[in-house]
Amino acid sequence: GLQEFVAKSLDMYRSELSLVLYPTFVYMYLDLIKIGQEQAARAFFDKHKHSFESYHELAITLRSEKYVIVMARDSFQCLVRHLQDSQSKLVLNLINQFFYMDLNDDLPRDQQRISTTAGSQLGEAPSV
After folding, report:
1. Where are the beta strands (DSSP E) in 57-127?
2. Which residues, other chains included, contact 46 with Cβ-Cβ below 8 Å and sequence gap of 6+?
3. Angle between helical axes of 73-85 and 89-98 (0-180°, round to 10)
4. Burial degree of 20 (CB within 10 A; 0-12, 13-18, 19+)
């Protein structure tokens, strides 16, 4: 899945790509609840919750505002290629609907640079 892709991605992309994991988890969970799949939502939540325990407060605002992710254009293109190749239409739709991808032409940021600027926008929470 997406977590495995991020974990196996090149070091130069991994930190930025990991920013997509938490909001994707939240939106997938909330969408399951919305369509009445409470048992599937609970199973999904239980399977993945250990990865995102430090993000509770952020979950409250995700449905009311777009989740901002600042990312190098190269990292974003890597993500989109993976999602298209793996036919992950659900994740692509979530990104299009709920994320604001603030793309730049800089080199991909490492975890230290992401942590330094974390919290300057909705989103940008330090990755787990």
Report:
1. 67-72, 99-104
2. none
3. 140
4. buried
Task: Fill in the amino acid letter for 100.
Answer: Y
Q: What is the pTM of this model?
A: 0.64
C-alpha distances in angstroms, 79 versus 12, 84, 85, 103?
13, 9, 10, 13
CB atoms within 10 A of CB 98: 18
Q: Contact, 109 vs 72, CB < 8 A?
A: yes
Residues sharing a CB contact under 8 Å with residue 65, sequence separation 6 or more, in sequence order: 122
Written as tens digits, the pLDDT of the chain (128 aa) is 899 999 999 999 999 999 999 889 888 998 998 899 989 998 998 998 888 877 766 667 666 788 889 999 999 999 999 999 998 888 898 899 889 999 999 999 998 888 887 654 445 444 44
> With the C-alpha atoms ordered 40, 98, 18, 57, is the resulting torsion angle positive or negative?
negative
